[in-house]
Amino acid sequence: MLQAEGVWFRYARDRPWVLTGDDLGIEAGEVLGLCGPSGGGKSTLGRVLAGHLRPDRGRVTVDGAVPRPRRAPHPVQLVLQQPERAIDPRWTVRQALAATGAELDGLDERLVHRDWLDRYPHEISGGELQRVNLARALLVRPRYLVADEISASLDAVTQARIWTLLLEHCREAGIGVLAISHDRPLLETVAGRVLDRSPVPDAAG
Ligand SMILES: Nc1ncnc2c1ncn2[C@@H]1O[C@H](COP(=O)(O)OP(=O)(O)OP(=O)(O)O)[C@@H](O)[C@H]1O
């Protein structure tokens, strides 16, 4: 299980608290939706869960232990809205995937077609690039995936296609997913349950 236990976080000592004792649990293979207004702290929570930000108080555990990836990839991978920011434009798709250190044998070819491998990011569409971005996160065999607005800039057909492929992969591999979006109908379609995050009232620390 991926668990946040009493997590507090603020970006600096002189900044307000964004997370104030948050608790959250995701079972292996579960898809949990996280909804809420802009600025409510959804992305911040996602980044804390994926180990990109360290909580000021509280902890994040995977199966009861705080992940301490040194050479191994983090068991919680984070994928964001804009794949063009995540993938170096000077690398081909193959190079971007290989940079994870994982064998390309494990590539999910439903997500990434072979004939995209030797193209550069600008030579595939935005939806295709997001599929590469997801495949890259899945290539390192995470236990959990935080999908933060991954389909927000895509048309409805592409959005549905991406979620279908992603959920299929995660179901087969038993990967738990935190789907973050401001789009509640989308979350109700893809997730088994949906949590609402309200903005933090002025929190004392
Ligand atoms: N790098 C940062 N440095 C300082 N403050 C930040 C940083 N990132 C986010 N914040 C602040 O933290 C608060 C929560 O932001 P966050 O991005 O987590 O919310 P969100 O619910 O994901 O919003 P949105 O739906 O607009 O993406 C906001 O007040 C935001 O301004």
From TrEMBL:
Name of the featured protein: Peptide/nickel transport system ATP-binding protein
Cited Pfam families: ABC_tran (PF00005)
Residues of the ABC transporter domain: 2-204
PANTHER family assigned: D,D-DIPEPTIDE TRANSPORT ATP-BINDING PROTEIN DDPF-RELATED, TRANSPORT ATP-BINDING PROTEIN
GO BP annotations listed: transmembrane transport
Keywords of this entry: ATP-binding, Nucleotide-binding, Transport
An example molecular function term from Gene Ontology annotations: ATP hydrolysis activity
Membership in a protein family: Belongs to the ABC transporter superfamily.
Tree of life domain: Bacteria
